[in-house]
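Onboarding guide, step 5: your first structure request.
Type a short instruction followed by the sequence, for example:

Predict the 3D structure of this protein.
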Amino acid sequence: MKKTVLSILLLGISAAAWAQHAVIKGKFVKENTITMGTSQMYLFKAADGGMVPVSMIPVARQDHSFQAQLADSDLNVIRYIGFADEVYPVYMRKGDSLTIDAGLGKITYSGKVNAENKVFADWNKIVAPLRNFNYAKDGWKRAADDYAPTLDSLVKPAEAFVNNIKTGNTKFDHYLKMMLPYSFRYDALGPFLQGLGYARHDQYPAFISNMFKTENYSDQQIWTLPFGYSYIQNSAFVKHFVYNLENGYLENVIVPEITNPKMRADYVLTVLARREYQKMAAFVSKNKQYMVTDQQKSRMKVFEKRAILKEPGGESIDFAYPDRNGKVHHLKDFRGKVVLVDVWATWCKPCLAEQPALEALEKSFEGKEVVFLSISIDTEKDKWTNMVETKNLSGIHLYSNNQGSLIQDYEITEVPRFILFDKNGKMVSYDAIRPSDPKLKELIESKI
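The system replies with structure tokens like these:
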């Protein structure tokens, strides 16, 4: 009897404690792609023109179900739930329990739907026909015939909806009246990114033509949107390369059009951080003038140093990593010698295929002012150690754990990678020829 009473009491305490938290559960249907699995999704927050994950949410493989308890820091603010390319907004308070059924551009909210989530639910009902072109399977195929009339039919209902938002949450209402019109524009651009286009300007819906005439990216609040950066990218791409049939690089046509100085600088820095440029040195040189705040200027100096580094004659950025015995070696330790850096991994077949040629190249320069640094990006140190010792690999072998200055400043994204420096630490080749090509030996000889 006492055990029964105690169990009931514990259950009551557990239920009471659970009720103090906000819980989101439901299903999110998403198909696997080459670059993204669907066994986990995220709760995101908006930051710097995009989104950053605040927590990971497992998704059941069998029925796509999930359940997540939100931290206190994720309450009373807008968060976004889903995958990087498909998210939905939620607004939770302590004790809320929300159920969502999402996927393919649509979502339903049920359970304890507060006033803020009801706004999101009703908005998604309005724009669902437009989002069908972007998210529904083969939706883009229907765009040529159905897009224009669908867009035209939604413009006024969307505007009326935004004007009538009144949840009693003043801050929320104010933000949504800014956010949702941009969200509508963002969805309206989708079909053009998938191939939709018209032969003449007068065939485009008036909404699209007017958007291109009036958008000058003057509103700093764009950068508070979870799709702010993408909105700028997408609208500029459609305007210049689909609507106006121009040629060129996207980053070059966008920057001059952003009239808000701070946001223009933020955009430039984001392009650099995401490596979405064609020629880094030229992009940095052209746009460093736009930095406004001290923080922006400081960040740009880092990118400027990296950009110069990549050019022949550019000053190297020092890095340091330990060998098998724990001794740390700096790049600057080898000034006065030509240095070939080999960035590799034990799991990289092309890297292993180059090793015999690299060993032969090293042997050919014995006794000369040439140093060979092989730096592994392996994250399992034992595998690296075993291979170096078992194969008795020559040269100086260092372990990076895929971290540090070499990875970040030299922007190493793939291996094998060979980088050649001259005796003064100046860049000779940021992406050098592989050892299996005799031209690499000739290049090294020319720098001794």
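Each response can be followed by summary notes, for example: The CA atoms of residues 150 and 375 lie 56 Å apart.
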